[in-house]
Amino acid sequence: MLRRSLLTTAVFLIAGAAAVSPAEARIDPAAFVNNLGRQLQVVVENPSSEARRAEFRRMLHKDFDVHRLSWFVLGRFSRIMTPPERQEFLELFEYYVVATYSDRLSEYVGDGGAPRVTGSRLEPDGAIVASQFSGRSGVIRIDWRLRNHHHSYKVTDIIIDGLSMAANGRSEIEGVAERNGGQPQAILAVMRQEVANVALP
Description:
201 residues; alpha+beta; Nuclear Transport Factor 2, Chain: A; 5-stranded antiparallel β-sheet; 20% strand
């Protein structure tokens, strides 16, 4: 369950700085997602999985708010973990996202090309951009939740066909802990196993 939810979490998210108002953002949110899609196409065209993961890691640091997403997914357990445990979770989460997201997004983009933006709306702290992937498996709707960051944006959540990947990942993390007596150490044990399973280069 944890593997499935984090595998499709999209496409998730280093620490954010102070937010600016939507009017101050220099990049239109739809243009940001279009640019992200073009970058993904370039990544997918690389035949080397190692190179794809390395490039996706660069994109992740540049365009996704990994720190904020990981803390949201960890939820209340971040308050009872020790600083070393929280740091380990952040590192494991990033490694797992790089490996699984690069493969999943490669499937989407390789199958149907870059996402087609269908609309966007501003929010107090950012924007939501609606898009679609069209491929052999049909049309997949993906909404990108963006947060204002230094006159641009960072991705904080991906909503696939109405399902928030951040919220789903958080629910799965809570389930792992609750099935193990509420111990946050169980979360780290599962994450270590998941990272080992994806065989990072």
